[in-house]
Write the structure tokens for this entry.
Amino acid sequence: MNQRFTLNVNGKEHTVEADPDMPLLYALRNDIGLNNPHFGCGLAQCGACTVHLDGQPIRSCVTPMSAVGAGKVVTLSGLGTPDKPHPLQAAYVAEEVPQCGYCINGWIMTAAAFLETNKKPSDGEIKQALSGLKCRCGTHLAILRAVKRAAEMTG
Ligand code: FES
Ligand code: FES
């Protein structure tokens, strides 16, 4: 049975009527209209749906509405703006990372949370932190360069 949820997303509150078992991703895309988190596998395997919940990267395709509570959700569009991009967003542009772009959301959201915990990561630490993500276009080396560039900008 549907319940009413109040979600705090990118600093704004949204009311959503949904089944408690519905994935958060569906509410973000279909009810709130945020299309930056993508549906990839739907099985927590690719990371395309990643958002932050209270600063932690989560896979919104397998996070039920009932698990969100009063937590603060941040999506890719909440990280920065075109005028004031997050360092990772700026680095992605500078390194010309995207090919099709479908995976970008997962890499940036995961890397953003990682860089909050490790300001000067080694290549190995970056690879380890991002090991659960997929890019079918093979942009991995460019992603590594972008994360290193962002770390230099923020570290
Ligand atoms: S769509 Fe969520 S991990 Fe693939
Ligand atoms: S840029 Fe196409 S899937 Fe990563």
